[in-house]
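Quick one: structure tokens for this chain, please?
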Amino acid sequence: MNISDKTGVMRKQKKHTILIIDDSDVNITALIRILSPDYNTHIAMSGKEGIELAKSISPDLIILDIVMPDMDGFDTIVALKKAVSTRYIPVVFITALSKPEDETKGLLLGGSDYITKPFSPEVVKQRVINQIRILEYIKKIEQLNRIDQLTSLPNRRSFHERLLSEWKLAVREKTPISLLVMDLDHFKKCNETFGHLLGDIVLQKVAKLINGMIRRPTDFSARWGGEEFIVLLPKTDSESAQAIAEFIRSSIENKPITFSDGLTTNLTISIGVNTQNPTKSCSMNDFLHYADDALYSAKRNGRNNVTVHIHD
């Protein structure tokens, strides 16, 4: 399938990956013929091999035979659903077992669909298309749940997921990690002066400014809530984090917000900074708490400044 990018140039959409677990060369050949033009296909000839391959390649969909030696399809799906890395991969059974009780068992064990042999190529194609559509819909919903709808920045939930990942990496690699927590100064007055609709525009413009000021792919900005924003800076020491915070602060101070009707307003922002070299005994809650404390110190000290938490 081809899609247009923003420039209008046609490009190929990334193919979804399908893992076929079946011990029959005839069935495998038929399924590859049906699916390979539209999908990346991988093959496993046994349940055990299929489980290991699923953990390795994380396919979008698994097609699973039931009647196999050593480990049948029912045992295979049970193992797939138990493993954290594979439990949410949809599984479509393709089998010669056509009794209603077999189909019921497969669906109760977590199968997403059940196709009996001999199968029609068109039926297989359409059943796979249906499962991929469901998968894409779920992914879109999950993505929306991680995005702040006003600013289009990642939201608090998304930030916590990223922090957990980067924190574990910092512990493992013994590298510093820094956090900027920032709050627009006197934003309530801005809402009272211009109204909440223009206040929302202010938040959108500030979000775009902040997001545009972080350079590395590993840096992560999010809306923390209200007029608060947060930036995670992996592999960043305190001096560098303070410099980035000051760059954000001065940029916002020196860039008036202009509305469509020509009105402008000047804003300032207060920023709290915390840097730690995490260990297994460190707490992510403390990491956040210290940055938050630094923010409140910045506001108590007159706002429009950067305050760094000093560790004892």
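Residues 121-144 form the longest helix (24 residues).
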